[in-house]
Amino acid sequence: MTEMVYGSMPARVGEPLLSRWWRTVDKWTLSAVIALSGIGLLLGLAASVPLASRNGLDPFYYVERQAFFGGLALVTMLICSMLPPQAIRRLGILGFAAAFVALAMLPIAGTDFGKGAVRWFSFGFASVQPSEFLKPGFIVLTAWLMAASFDINGPPGKMISFLITLVIVGFLAMQPDFGQSMLVLFGWGVVYFVAGAPFLLIIVVVGLVGLGGIFAYSNSEHFARRIDGFLSPDVDPRTQIGYATNAIQEGGFFGVGVGEGQVKWALPDAHTDFIIAVAAEEYGLLMVLVILSLYGLIVVRSLFLLLRERDPFVRLAGSGLACIFAVQAMINMGVAVRLLPAKGMTLPFVSYGGSSVIAAGITVGMLLALTRQRPQGEMADYLKGRGR
Amino acid sequence: MTRTPLRPLARILQARASGENPDLIERENLAWRHEVIRDRGRARSEGRLLFLAIFFMLAFSLVGGRMGVIAASQPQEPKAEASGAQILATRADITDRNGRILATNMLTHALYAHPKDMVDPARVARELVELFPDMDQAALEKRFTDGRSFLWLRRVLSPEQMQAVHDIGDPGLLFGPREVRLYPNGPIAAHVLGGASFGAEGVHSAEVIGTAGIEKAMDARLRDPAQSGPLQLSLDLTVQATVEEVLYGGMVMMKAKGAAAILMDVRTGEIISLASLPDFDPNDRPAPITDKTAEPGDSPLFNRAVQGMYELGSTFKIFAAAQAMDLGLMNPETMVDANAPMRWGKHLIKEFKGKNYGPLLSVTDVIVQSSNVGTAHIALQIGGLRQQAFLKQLGFFDPSPIELIEAPGAKPLIPARWPDIVTITTSYGHGMSASPMHLATAYAAIANGGIAIKPTLLKRDTPAQGIRVMSADTAAKSVSMLRQVVTRGTASYGDVEGYAVAGKTGTADKPKKTGGYYKDKVINTFATIFPANNPRYVLIVTLDEPVEDSGPEVRRTAGYTAVPVAAEVIRRVAPLLGLRPEVDFTPVDQITAVVEDNH
């Protein structure tokens, strides 16, 4: 006790923050994300030029913006990844609350940019899509509620989170944004699935989603047209899918060469929804496989790291975040190869976009924070004879 | 609030007894139970996390595989696929009985535009208007630039026009192949053929559907891909052309407003020729008259031979005579009361121009002189019920079964009630109306020996089957009476040397729309059977409002109008039909032998 005197050097109790972070963070996922951002910037050099020239801007205007937002997203990701799980939980829930209020305000203060769906807040220099920021917070909240429901005398977290999901889906469907509402439902479903949903219930939910799709098909012309286009056997070469297919064919295995692609001039969404077509045309199948492997690496590695996680909240939140991240990439690329009906969905980190990149940064940052190595009571397992 | 039981109760009770804090024991227990739950949860989610990892790996592999398949396939020149079902464009040809083409298809192109692919809409509009002066340059340019992506410009282009449009050289102008129906003979047999136009139109083809005549009536057969051969009609193109030519001359000469002719084979029921004037060109079918006040007959589209319902006048008299003979009531020599005028109730039956052929006439002479009163007395002996039954058997009460789309709608006009006065007027062809096609069908039954047959426009090789409506003997006697009408009766201009024409004239006043009859407007009909000694053909010639005013007296009776026209038709057509003229044998002794006398 006598050493504790005023003015003495403060002793470091634990390891320094950065060194502990570097030691525990999953460097594979981190590298994959940085690689994806780099690829996104590289593709943006080609894909966003036509948009800039259409809007009468400097040819690399959007590249610069993408570099700025990408940098911002990486910084956000790094900061998030340094937080402990409790801080992730608190921040996630606060973030969710903010995003939810923003989402609810959309019908009053939002703008549709003439695209027929009120999804954005416009702040002059940039626009924000609250649904993008809602998703990571929502996953964290759901995971927290579900984890709490496992505790003895815990709250009925599954039911509460499900009700919240329904409210969010309702708001998103009002915009209308069926893609995001499907993602939200999917995220909740994954968390619930990992938390141990009964298989009967899973079947029922899948059925309900199907019915919801049919309802949307019969009531939303926007939705019905996309589905019809998907079901018709011929690819109309004048549709986005037609151009994308042609671009993939033109690209072949090794691409037509950097900047030589034509599809970016024909597709209005070449820099966002169909960035993979630009990649396929200019860099060939090779680049597509690299991108696919990077996404696969992130999700599979994260899920494997979460296998040994003892904390239910961390496990649920981590797997939910990994899955919505991966499913967004999967849908985006599935649309381009016509495995899925056309649905506007960005390719995380690769597509151009402010909100979506930063939201992806938050998502992966939280994921990295949750997959960091922590003591998982391995010793206790051995001592109690439960270990492997 | 429900209180959770204290666990483990035994240790807590022990602790309480020894004064220790039982809460510590309870918390320790709770923590232990949480550990257990977490272990169980982790074990359970292990499989599920693996499932998710495998799911995403498979999904990404699937996307990658699919990407590889697409990348490995060859890029194709973008080609717009026809949406929906392919429109079937092959329509069977129509030929005459000898295989000569009446209707066929020709490949042309339609012109359409994809304004979004257009390089210079202003120039395209300007050059198109130079080619097609009926287009409006300003309107075209506006439609090219208002954001639409598709635009039909012309339905049919000739090859020269197509080349000229090609030479404009704009990628936004495109051609869609399509077959159009072509009638190489122009207006010949126009009313039989009818016409065709486009049904469903697509970029790659267009459906050709019949709009009238046999094209519409036989539309399913013509469009049936299983029956690829041409549709062979009973018409003979040469005969048809000749009939139309002679009929047109007659119509002009007799100042008639319309004319119709039907030539029918009495054994098979085949219609060899069917003409209605004025006619039209089915390649360029005129629009129907929409004016409500106009009579249907004013339109060239109106088929007088099938759609025209006329009171056919004295041509009906032979039916009364034939039925009376067939019933055994009379024979050709039976004398009947012919004292004119005849009073029946409040009606007065008069002869033509107030003549009186009476007091008595033989049945033959009733027909030959065309006595209304005599026919009336014959009909009264038959009776209304039997008369109706006989006329029904001959087909006068139903629409003609001929294969024209207009036929089922053309119903004969039958009086609703059938008192004796209707029996009387019907016997000489007034009060009920039927088409020349009905008349031809009925005369064919007399000519072929008493069998009622169906008329047909399709080629048939075997004699038609039908029910017998009179004995062969009655039919022969009737033909003989009709022959005498030509040799010594009202149709003396109808005799054609060598072809023994038999026939009956009919002159009927035209009914006014407002009721009553016109004094100076008549329908003249001549129904003929030839050759009389071995009847092969029935020819009906009908003239609408003819007048023969070459002489001092203006004549409107059939004997001066329809009969000479019919005779000219037979004179021209009979050799084409392969009928041998029966000319009197010239005795040998009248031939002067020219002896060569120079040896």
From TrEMBL, chain A:
EC no. given is 2.4.99.28
InterPro entries, sorted:
FtsW/RodA
Q: Which reaction does it catalyse?
A: [GlcNAc-(1->4)-Mur2Ac(oyl-L-Ala-gamma-D-Glu-L-Lys-D-Ala-D-Ala)](n)-di-trans,octa-cis-undecaprenyl diphosphate + beta-D-GlcNAc-(1->4)-Mur2Ac(oyl-L-Ala-gamma-D-Glu-L-Lys-D-Ala-D-Ala)-di-trans,octa-cis-undecaprenyl diphosphate = [GlcNAc-(1->4)-Mur2Ac(oyl-L-Ala-gamma-D-Glu-L-Lys-D-Ala-D-Ala)](n+1)-di-trans,octa-cis-undecaprenyl diphosphate + di-trans,octa-cis-undecaprenyl diphosphate + H(+)
Could you state one GO biological process linked to this protein? peptidoglycan biosynthetic process
What is a single cellular component term in the Gene Ontology annotation? cell division site
Q: What is its main location?
A: membrane
The annotated topology with respect to the bilayer is:
Multi-pass membrane protein
Molecular function terms in GO for this entry? lipid-linked peptidoglycan transporter activity; peptidoglycan glycosyltransferase activity
**Keywords tagged on the record:** Cell cycle, Cell division, Cell shape, Glycosyltransferase, Membrane, Peptidoglycan synthesis, Transferase, Transmembrane, Transmembrane helix
Q: Which residues cross the membrane?
A: 28-47, 67-84, 91-113, 159-178, 190-217, 283-307, 313-337, 349-370
Where is this gene product found? Membrane
Provide the family line: Belongs to the SEDS family. FtsW subfamily.
Q: Name the chain's protein.
A: Probable peptidoglycan glycosyltransferase FtsW
Q: What is the lineage of its organism?
A: Bacteria, Pseudomonadati, Pseudomonadota, Alphaproteobacteria, Rhodobacterales
Q: Which gene encodes it?
A: ftsW
From TrEMBL, chain B:
The Gene Ontology biological process terms listed for this entry are: cell division; cell wall organization
Q: Name one GO cellular component term.
A: plasma membrane
Domain (Penicillin-binding protein dimerisation): residue spans on this chain: 87-223
Q: Which residues form the Penicillin-binding protein transpeptidase domain?
A: 260-557
Subcellular localization, per the record? Membrane
Q: InterPro entries annotated for this entry? A: Beta-lactam/transpept, Beta-lactam/transpept-like, PBP_dimer, PBP_dimer_sf, PCN-bd_Tpept
Q: Does the keyword Cell division apply?
A: yes
Q: Which Pfam families match?
A: PBP_dimer, Transpeptidase
Q: Which GO terms describe its molecular function?
A: carboxypeptidase activity; penicillin binding
Which residue windows are transmembrane per the record? 49-69
- Which keywords, in A-to-Z order, does the entry hold? Carboxypeptidase, Cell cycle, Cell division, Hydrolase, Membrane, Protease, Transmembrane, Transmembrane helix
Q: What is this protein called?
A: Cell division protein FtsI
Lineage, broadest ranks:
Bacteria, Pseudomonadati, Pseudomonadota, Alphaproteobacteria, Rhodobacterales
